[in-house]
Specification:
Blueprint (H helix, E strand, L loop, with lengths): L2 H6 L4 H12 L11 E7 L4 E5 L12 H11 L5 E8 L9 H8 L7 E6 L2 E7 H4 L12
The structure holds tetrahydrodeoxyuridine.
Tetrahydrodeoxyuridine binds next to helix 3.
EC number: 3.5.4.5
Cofactor: Zn(2+)
Organism: Methylobacterium mesophilicum SR1.6/6
């Protein structure tokens, strides 16, 4: 089974959702009041979570995905097997453009990206679907 199929079948997806939902409650979002939680699984099976952290100097705020990725890197992880973003928006809450690129650094075209609302996963995309023809480390010959 491909990683994306395995995720869709539910292996570990509940754990990612619960991690994202829990960390979303910790979001510091006094300006937008839009709380976001993200949780990812690395290729060693570790789960890392992050929430958005806004700032009175608005552009300095950081997205939930950035926090989850930073936690993964700090723990020694370098590969995202799957990532889930949880928010309560009008329509889907998918990673913003900058976060798609942040995910790209540590993920491949088939990596599943789950978009969840407060009650569960609404849609699942691959990274290639959300960021086609992307620029990445390989472009630099890495
Ligand atoms: N936000 C995220 O944390 N992740 C995204 O991918 C979309 C946007 C946050 C940033 C800001 O704190 C709030 O949601 C409203 O844009």
């Amino acid at each position: 089974m491909q990683a994306a199929d395995s995720e869709r079948a539910g292996d570990g997806l509940t754990a990612l959702f619960e991690a994202a939902r829990a960390v979303r409650a910790q979001a510091h979002a006094p300006y937008s009041r839009f709380r976001v939680g993200a949780a990812l699984r690395d290729d060693r099976g570790g789960v890392h979570a992050g929430c958005n952290v806004e700032n009175a100097a608005y552009p300095v705020g950081t997205c939930a995905e950035a926090g989850a990725i930073a936690a993964m890197v700090a723990s020694g992880g370098r590969r995202i097997a799957a990532i889930l973003v949880c928010g309560d928006g009008v329509g889907l809450v998918t990673p913003c453009g900058a976060c798609r690129q942040r995910i790209r650094e540590f993920a491949g075209p088939d990596t599943p990206i789950h978009a969840a609302g407060p009650d569960g996963v609404a849609r699942t995309f691959t990274l290639a679907e959300l960021l086609p023809e992307s620029f990445g480390p390989e472009t630099l010959g890495e």
